[in-house]
Amino acid sequence: MLKHYPLLINGQWLETGETLEVLNKFTGEAMGAVSVAGKEQVDQAVFAALKAFQTNPLPPYRRYEILKRASELLLAQKEDFAHTIAGEVGKTWKEALVEVERTAQTLEVSAEEAKRIQGEGVPVEASPGAENRIAFTIRVPVGVVCAIAPFNVPLNLVAHKIGPALAAGNTVVLKPASVTPIVALKLAGLLVEAGLPQGYLNVVVGSGSTVGDWLAKDERISLYTFTGSPSVGRQLKAATGLRKVLLELGSNSAVIVHQDADLDLAINMCVGKSFGNAGQVCISVQRIYVHREVHDEFVRRFVEATKQLRVGDPYDSQTDIGPMISEKEAQRAEAWVTEAVEQGALLGCGGTRDGALFQPTVLTGVHDEMKVSCEELFAPVVGIAVYDDLDDCIRRINLSRYGLQAGIFTTNINTAFKAAREIHVGGVMINDASQFRADLMPYGGVKESGWGKEGPKYAIQEMTEERIIVMNL
User: How far apart are CA 215 and CA 6, in angstroms?
Assistant: First the structure.
């Protein structure tokens, strides 16, 4: 019998008259059914969150205890959660285990940061006429936070939104992605078990055109934190008016392999971080710019290494790449690769699919105007281009409307810092690929990759308001 997962509203598990089936992305079979929220349930969720925030404030140490306990409970059930992720997303077993472990870290760091929220002294007495005054700032929670999460990292990116929000003293209404909602509901269950009071976390499931739209228009919500496509991000920003929105949007991340690079390191890192989660990561390596002096050797070895990757069943511990989120997305990737080849790119390997399984693909001779280069691919496809001059290479990278993260491989510190200063992105990885993220670091982009920072300490700053207190003595 198919297991059913109800919504969480005001501390109660609520079934509705409408359900959606969540599919195993490898087999296509239903792995569970989830209640879908209607307008009434969304209204109840926001009301519960607002009431909890107004009537039952949680002191910082209690927030710490709850989040720390949830982290411990998650690690105790690591394999169960990994099993859900591998099915819902199609992420490989080894990647799913890492996601669970990282989520536990995100919750633990959020717990620790709950005890470190602080303001600062302000020397207003230095201003003429204010000699008898003392001033300082405090940080206060914003209120109700709406968290809208994506499908590709359905546990850790949920934790990156609700962990800091709860640590800051806010209450949350969470809308997980409709294709991967089960693991988010299971995490909510752990937080309830850890002692989170009713109303502090509410989970509603449904489409962006219904549930997402109702949430965007609800003026009881003070802040939105969203990860997804730029087009939906723009719609959300337009609908929410002057209320604060944190946006983590798309990218087409670039990596430079300079002429003095350690090629062993560059190839190992780039192969591993081009195809993880079937390339469905915002900071996946999509564009590789290789200096002409090392281009041919890099391409040969990169293609050889890519051909060794195994594609197949995510539950097989030997699998390196599982299916994409849907066959439709795999068909899109196939069409983009075909178009690039027709426009002059060369196919080093891959380019074929079997249902939602897409073979890891390497394209060479890629031009910046090709869709596989200038748009966000979100697939296990990487394009390699050649460059001669570093300044020109950086200029080409910066032409992108995206700017999330980039990487450079070089043994020259001056070259490294030149790239760090001049590439217009939110983060530059030196001697690493673009797809590096430690869960405690500030993470966010520029341009159409969004604004605002994730990472518990930095997200808490976004999710609190600074208030000045002045005492006239």
Answer: 19
